[in-house]
Predict the structure.
Amino acid sequence: MSNRPPETGPFFARDRDIHPPAYTPWYKTSILRSPQRALISLEGTKSEITGPVFGHGMLNPLDNDLILNYAKPGEMPIGPRILVHGRVLDERGAGVPGALVEFWQANAGGRYRHKKETYLAAVDPNFGGVGRTITDETGYYWFKTIQPGPYPWPNGVNDWRPAHIHFSIFGHGFQQRLITQMYFEGDPLIWRCPIVKTVPDEDAIRRLVAPLDMNATIPMDMRAYKFDIVLRGRRSTFFENRPEGN
Amino acid sequence: MVQPLGYIKESASQTAGPYVHIGCTPNFVGIHGIFDRDLGSGALYNDETRGTRVTIRGTVYDGGGYALRDALVEIWQADDAGFYNSPSETRGEADPNFLGWGRSPGDMDTGEFVFETIKPGRVPFKDGRWMAPHITFWIVARGINIGLHTRMYFPEDEAANAEDPVLARIEHKDRVPTLIAKKEGDNTYRFDIRLQGEGETVFFDI
Ligand SMILES: [Fe+3]
């Protein structure tokens, strides 16, 4: 996958100022699900800096094509066709090869395929709303999908989620584990959303908004949105001269 | 003026939301035909795996004492000899029949998660002291803005737990038991996770 030697250094300390705090009462579910005691600080040990490898062999050809991976033969889901692409990087700006990227989303009407989903928008019989891929040797990934719609949710009396795609990213260390959401350029709901507003840093919010990418847009086929994801960086271990453990 | 350091910042975390199972365990929520099986489901071991088979069950509770039924729990652990199946493992070769990673969506009605795994060996801390056998847990759910890391230790390892450098880091000793599983039977353990309030589980900023 990559000729780089495996990295064994500890990860940079996490900048908690760009992440949402646990307790954000305007997002009501966080009220009872937020730890109140201080987190115990721990520079990663072997248990945190290591992580499993997911091979490209586990992927099926349609895993990164949400337009076709749940559709009946000869049919397609309804809605705007889009390509989502970008790179998984670390805080040093280096591509993260072999990262597992999983994504899930509502359909074009803003409806999820889930038993507990109650929004009255229609389920699309040809849309499952889930896919995954593994980044290439440069950290690049892409998938095809239908642009999701915004949807209302029970929080405030009139709260709507901006259109978004959920991402789960698995890099090289369990410490890099991240779940986030991608938003779409120009959506007026972004700056009204209580979940978006759990992120305390305006620039960090902007970095979750994918721009329209006309260069990658496929003429007469699908528009493209570019979404780079940054995982924690790690220190080099040039100076690792003390054998660990034994 | 000086040169810019050139680092870029980590992407901000956002809650996994109520439908994390669609993305991470689609078969569990009835979305069949896309992935053959849900990643990280089933026993972590096979017939060839070395080590003692153990079952770990637990429930994630909120600050009101209610069980979460929309959480996703992942574990990561060393093999029987204390090696991680990872390119970042420099001390030796891990058991090729043990990946050491698992994922559980919890039971649809009760929220209880289950992992069928093996008891891990001991892994050294950075300064060479031995940590007690432990499993790393990561919990995400609706209402959790950033994934929570914790560890489970084993109740029978009293001596090893007493000298564990990570447990020693916990100033309020009455909180240490929140990281130690309860024995429920032969090789069966319960590890409940309390997000808030009385008996709040110790979580780590790693
Ligand atoms: Fe959503």
Q: What stands out?
A: Chain A is about 5% helix and 25% strand. Residues A 161, 164, 166; B 17 surround fe (iii) ion (CB under 6 Å). The mean pLDDT of chain A is 94.
